[in-house]
Amino acid sequence: MEFKSVEIIKLPKILDERGNLSFLEADNHIPFTIKRSYWIYDVPGGEQRGAHSYKINQEFVIALSGSFDVVVNDGIEVKTYTLNRSYYGLYIPNGIWRHMENFSTNSLAFVISSTDYNENDYERDYDNYLKSKLNH
Ligand code: TYD
């Protein structure tokens, strides 16, 4: 599998009358080694999170509960992905401007990252982001 662009990835789903089970393995179902995970929850209605890009960090985002939209922008095209199943996730490579919105009540956004938290890896200024894209 080639993973160089934003992509929905379907994870294994083990159906069981006792309850279903899904899983992922680093460098297998997702194209990076896991360094960190974080989660976003208790989002008030109408709020947005995560309007920025990363220079190096790659992410995989799963709606473990509820639903929300991930809006991704590569400087040319804007696409919205609705996540609402715990066995689908969105791979977001580095260099993509993204934010999350339309969080349902009690939604849980689980994010798996390829790097440790590093504020210097963030681009939080959209104009600077676009300029950096033009220079490539
Ligand atoms: P941030 O990624 O800036 O969230 P958003 O883009 O939605 O505003 O994270 C908010 C704060 O949380 C940030 O200032 C630092 C802290 N934080 C960590 O300490 N470790 C982490 O792994 C993350 C994702 C955030």
List the main descriptive attributes of the protein structure presented here:
136 residues, mainly beta, five-stranded antiparallel β-sheet, 1 helix, globular, binds thymidine-5'-diphosphate
Q: Can you walk through the features of this model?
A:
A five-stranded antiparallel β-sheet has the order 1-9-6-11-4, with no helix packed on it. A five-stranded antiparallel β-sheet has the order 8-7-10-5-12. The protein is built from one helix and twelve strands. A hairpin with a 4-residue loop joins strand 7 and strand 8. It is 7% helix and 41% strand. The chain is mainly beta. Thymidine-5'-diphosphate (TYD) is lined by residues 36, 38, 49-50, 52, 117. The site of thymidine-5'-diphosphate has 6 residues, from strand 4 and strand 5.
Q: What does the average pLDDT come to? A: 96
Low-confidence stretches: none
- Approximately how much helix is present in the residues? under 10%
β-strand percent reads: 35-45%
Number of helices: 1
Strand order of the largest sheet: 1-9-6-11-4
Q: Tell the overall outline.
A: globular
The major beta sheet can be summarized as: 5 strands, antiparallel
How far the N terminus sits from the C terminus, by CA atoms, comes to 25 Å
Bound chemical compounds: thymidine-5'-diphosphate
Could you spell the SSE succession in H and E letters? EEEEEEEEEEEEH
